[in-house]
Structures are given as C-alpha cells and as structure tokens.
Amino acid sequence: MGQAAARPVPVLAPSAATRQHAPAMIAFLSDIHGNREALSACLDHADRAGATRFVFLGDYVGYGADPAWCLRTVMARMADGAVAILGNHDQAVFARGNRMTGRAAAAIDWTRAQLSPDAAAFLQTLPLEHAEEDRLYVHADASSPEDWRYVLGAEEARRSLEATPARVTICGHVHVPRLFGLTATDKCTAFAPAHDTPVPLQRPRRWLAVMGSVGQPRDGDPAACYGLLNPGTAELRWMRVPYDVEAAAAKIRRAGLPGSLADRLFTGS
C-alpha cells in the first residue's frame, strides 16, 4: 500500500490514570473531502492521542470517492458531542447556485448521486460558525462566512479577527496550515506551523489558526493534517498523519471522477 509521507508519526497513548487527570484535548478536522482513508487515519490518531472532543470544520464532501461514509462518520461523532459546521462544498450539494466550476463542480454533481436524502438533509442543518468559551469555529473568513473567502495572508487574517470578539478563531478552507497572531500593538504576524510542535496561544494576542486539510492537503506534504488543542495550556499542534493514498486515489479513478483529483493526493498539491 502507498503511504503519504515517510516521517514517523508520534502517537500518544496516555494511561487511564493520565487520561483521568488530563484536560480534555480537542481535535480539529477540516476539508475531509470524501477521503475515507485520510479521515480514518486522523480519527484513529486523535483517539490514541487522547482527544475527547472533536470539531469538524466543514467540507466533508467533494473531490473524494467516499462522501457518504465520511458524512456518516461525522454524524456518528456528533451523536457523541462533536461539533460540525458547514463548508462551501457541503453547501454546493443542496444550493445549486453555489459557484463551483471545473473539477469541483464535476465532483459535486457526482456526490449528489451518492448521498441519501437523510445525508443531504443533514448538510442543510449545519451552521456557518460555532462559538464556545473564547474560541470561534468557522470554515472560511469569519468576517463573512457565507461568502467563503480565503484567509491567505495577514490582511485577510486581520479582517477575520476584527470581525469577531473571539480571542482564537479556528478555520479551514485553505488546505494549507497557517497561524496568524494579532498583537496588542495591532501588528499581524504569520507563522508556518511545524509538525507536532506545540504553539502557545498566549494572551494578549489574538489568534487565527488555519487547520490545513485532512483529505486533500495543498502544502506539498501529502500526509493528512489535523489539529490538537490543549485548552488547559492553550497549546495548539498541527499533526501530520500518513495514510493509504493509493487506495484513496484508486477509488477516485474507479468512480470516474477527474483523474487529477487522484494524482494530486500523491503530491499534496
């Protein structure tokens, strides 16, 4: 089987006693895009790392060949208390006026035929954002979530941060892990987070974290990406998880979806 990324992935396996006294870890998963193999690998890794809460940041469907399975999995996690918000590809399933073109439009047309009425109806119930404590979860730019604007740099990050009172905003949509910090002197700085390196989200800064993509990374690393937050220490980590890329790509080709959607999984582009 083909594996994305050769780096070893540390898997934390806390004891029962440690789990009893440790603060709840929150796992953030965005842009799954119908990639069953990547989602399975990330959920397994997060479970073993001690995550007790899950937040899904949208785009469960589109591009990949297992949209129904991915949606069922997210729905099952929600039954256990997970949070899920709407992404633009999810919206495109039920909003025919959504601005999808090219490969994305072809994948959504195919996806509609794969989903049960219940699954499609579930997508329509999802909110555009979710707030808790000092954090806001949203798929795209928080200044206008329904417009699906990308947070690509400091200017967009500032616009998003200034539109909400949340101290920490966590989003997806871009498929590239990034972190932006707004200082007390109003300077917005950008960081490219390193794999499995804790980043303290210190006060008085305000922060915007872009989680990267579980199912279709675009930062040159084909390994699936998700985030782990320790609310007790306010430390956030971006985790990279190898998965069976060959299996995911083969399914895309067998489904008759554009071959480039399979090819890009091998390069993370």
Keywords:
269 residues; alpha/beta; Purple Acid Phosphatase, chain A, domain 2; six-stranded mixed β-sheet; 9 helices; 12 strands; globular
Per DSSP, the total helix count is: 9
Helix and strand element order: HEHEHEHHHEEHEEEEEEEHH
Computed structural class: alpha/beta
Whole-number count of domains = 1
Poorly predicted regions? 1-21
Give the overall form: globular
Helical fraction: 25-40%
Q: CATH superfamily membership, which one?
A: Metallo-dependent phosphatases
Radius of gyration: 18 Å
SS elements, strand count: 12
Indicate the proportion of strand residues: 15-25%
Largest sheet report: 6 strands, mixed
Taking the alpha carbons of the first and last residues, their distance comes to: 20 Å
Task: Examine the secondary-structure arrangement and name the CATH architecture.
Answer: 4-Layer Sandwich
| CATH fold call | Purple Acid Phosphatase, chain A, domain 2
The first-level CATH class is given as Alpha Beta
Mean pLDDT: 91
Strand line-up of the largest beta sheet: 3-2-1-11-12-9
Description of the structure:
The chain has 269 residues and is of the alpha/beta class. It has nine helices and twelve strands. The strands form two sheets. It has a six-stranded mixed beta sheet with strand order 3-2-1-11-12-9. Strands 4-5-6-10-7-8 form a six-stranded mixed beta sheet, with helices on one face. Strand 11 (224-230) and strand 12 form a beta hairpin. The chain is globular, with a radius of gyration of 18 Å.
